[in-house]
Amino acid sequence: MPADNTPFLSPAALARCVPFVVFMALLALRGHLPDGLGLDARWVYGAQAAVVAGLLTFYWRGYGELARQNLPDARETGWAVAVGAVVFALWVQLDAPWMQLGEATASFVPLDADGRPVWPLIALRLAGAALVVPVMEELFWRSFLMRWIEHPGFERVDPRRVGLRAIALSTFVFMLAHTLWLAAIVAGLAYAGLYRWTGKLWTAVIAHAVTNGMLGLWVVWTGRWEFW
Asked: Global pTM?
């Protein structure tokens, strides 16, 4: 990696890392809440999503790649939607035991004691997964990490010129943050490919949102809560 005087924790890096780090910290907390507190960890997800949404709003002016002039055109949007749908279709198939890294630390089963759906919980989960998480994760994994691996002065890196090494390494770390490792590799490469092809982060965000949104609706329809 070439030498660069850009500090790792520059304001631009912090704007992309802080929401992600906070989300992961709250995720770990939600998965290890003591039973004696009497808190329903499922409702903590709403607070988790709200806090991260607040951080994204606070930093929003610093996300130049999400400015209005960087919105994708109709063709690019169509490709993003198609890629997101394909990733969803593959994600729900790539769940064999050997394709999994352990178990999720914070399971989310939005059912009451009688096994009936708790719709406010479902709505919170869908909103967080389809609206907040795609923006937060793409800013961290693709806008920051992938470009930073290419060059520490990541803001000056044109995503269309990112090399295979940066794509592979960032996708590998992305994989480690997910239980379904093979599905995560497919998703990471797909979103990175869109970003590199179009040069617009919005295409990766849209694809990620489509994947998460379709996955959420499918989970609710089928009752396959293990995918949440």
From this structure: 0.93
